[in-house]
Amino acid sequence: MIFLDSAATTPVRREVLEVMWPLLTGDFGNPSSHHELGESAKRSLDAARKSVAASVGCRASDVIFTSGGTESDNLAIKGLALAEPRGRHIVTSAIEHEAVLESVDFLRRVHGFEVTVVPVDHRGLIDLEDVRAALRADTTLCTIMYANNEVGVVQPIAAIAELCREHSVPMHTDAVQAAGWLPLGLAELGVDALSLSGHKLGAPKGIGVLIVRGRRALEPVIHGGGQERGKRSGTENVAGAVGIAHALALAESDRVARAQSAASLRDAFAADVLSRVPEAVLTGPAVPEAVLTGPAAPSTVPQSAHRLPNNASFCFPGTSGESLLLELGRAGIICSAGSACAVGSDEASHVLVALGIDPAIAQTAVRFSLSGDTTAEQLATVAAQIETAYRAVRSLSG
Ligand code: PLP
């Protein structure tokens, strides 16, 4: 099997499992219990919080453990927007994850918020002037993702955060896909809130982090026993917290080298695919204008500072993403059809449509996302299999 779906999830790293194991077995206390077992769990939780804070450069008290990226986004958006007395206006982008879009829509439907959706260009990039124009005196929150899960576009988050600061608007970013590949230093990013998910990083599914800096008010979304200083009730997932803290520290320790190596492997892979299947279109940043209307020449695939190092997403006009996925699956290659915008949906991806791609072409999308362990040999095999699968699907569709 060749796994090229790391943007969907990653296996738990052995080192992460090893630090979690004692907390799932002998040292299994509830951190709220006032006995030695509980106090030991509390010490582990505190240490995990400090470790996350050190990885991203914030105070331990800014770290809230959640059940994953979806909950972090929900808590950030509903929690910050509802606690902020400035008004009822939110700014977001057209290519956010559903966890963001649906949370924003909830505020619109149930709490009467006005929403300004900032557009993106054909690469998926936001124009800072559009953000500037969107910010108002009654804007409660600006939420714009760091890196996109489908086409890998990386937004100029520090510059957007600076604009927000100038307008005194709190800024949240969904950094779920960026973690492990891009710098997460909060001082450099300048955001007020940031979401992370464990299972994209070599920690288990069901654990996430929301950072909310400083003393910003946050309305809880989950009510109960007052854990996480009242911001997220529910008995803490101590092993998960220790796991995500360790995974984050490990990912950060070799991030730069891993990102550089993935980017050059990815660029060679993209060039290989485009030379084997000249009809294919690399979607997202570093795409020359020409490929939106015609085939790309392999020499036009430069490295891009605006693209996640591990992402290569294509459309294969004249096929369907799902059929290609099946063909590739038969050859032992695991990747993702970029077209489904949510579980069970066969609508064209809102991300690709926002990039100006024809909805019919958007249905032919396939996303390949590398891990730190992906090799050049694997990618050469995959590129050859893509060509075979493409010819097979094209011949079937006449
Ligand atoms: N945000 C982005 C950008 C994602 O890619 C994902 C998951 O794919 C999420 C949020 C949701 O994270 P989780 O699966 O931990 O709920």
From TrEMBL:
GO molecular function: cysteine desulfurase activity; iron-sulfur cluster binding; metal ion binding
Identification of the protein by name: cysteine desulfurase
Catalyzed chemical reaction(s): (sulfur carrier)-H + L-cysteine = (sulfur carrier)-SH + L-alanine
Originating organism: Rhodoglobus vestalii
SUPFAM superfamilies the record matches: PLP-dependent transferases (SSF53383)
Family: Belongs to the class-V pyridoxal-phosphate-dependent aminotransferase family. NifS/IscS subfamily.
Its EC number(s): 2.8.1.7
UniProt entry tagged with the keyword Protein biosynthesis: no
Assigned keywords, A-Z: Iron, Iron-sulfur, Metal-binding, Pyridoxal phosphate, Transferase
